[in-house]
Amino acid sequence: MRKLLALAALSLAVLPVAALRADETSPTTSVVTVETAPEPSGTYWLRYREGWFWYRDPPARMKPPKAAPPAQSRQRELVEFEAMQQRLDELKRVAVMNPTDANLVAYMRYQRFVMNKSELFAERWQRLVWTVPELDYGLTGRPTNSMAIGAFDEQQRDRREQTVRSLAATHGLLFIFRSDCPYCHRFAPILKRFEQEFGMTVFAVSLDGRGLPEYPNPQLDNGIATRLNASVVPALYLTAPSKRQIRPVGFGVMAMTELVERVAALAQDPREDPL
Question: Is 163-274 CATH 3.30.1330.10?
């Protein structure tokens, strides 16, 4: 009996050592220990089972997501205006592609709704212009009132005529024509009256060597028509002889008022082309 008790005690004493050795040599137990029980930073040098762990990249830190920018609120009028335009366009497209009575009526009614809004806008605009003079184009530009239009045109005409009379002291007109041109015969009396009224000298040049009743003794073309590319007659040019500069006034028949307006406009334009 004593031998049996001694043998049992000896087996109990050896059991923990065997269990410890089995824990060290068993690959299954070692893997579970490394994965499930991470070691603290103090045992850095004891983590030899991980291999060449100093080449491993550090774990990436997750950055908190950026908060989305707040949506900018739009004015209610802008949203409603865009919705109105979209609705009108949709109804129009439906009516064009399928022109039934119902589709046409729907589009026409909504179009009338939009036109009423536009009419209200125009009325409010006009009332505001009445109270703010600097916004009234009729006071700063060409008037819209019939009585004011007459006064405005008369003032503009007097101003242009004065400009042309002042220009006559330093400028002249070059008139290129043909004696067999019916348009030249129609334009010559107008140009002659312009010359007499404003005192601007007209240099007449004939392409065929013959004159007109108003200009019986013209100069023969010496190549200036080709130089100026005067392929259409009558052709009229504004010249500054002292500066040897020239600019086209126009081609074809021009009325007296149109002629004055063009010459005055050229006088106000500082650009000039060399002769």
Answer: no
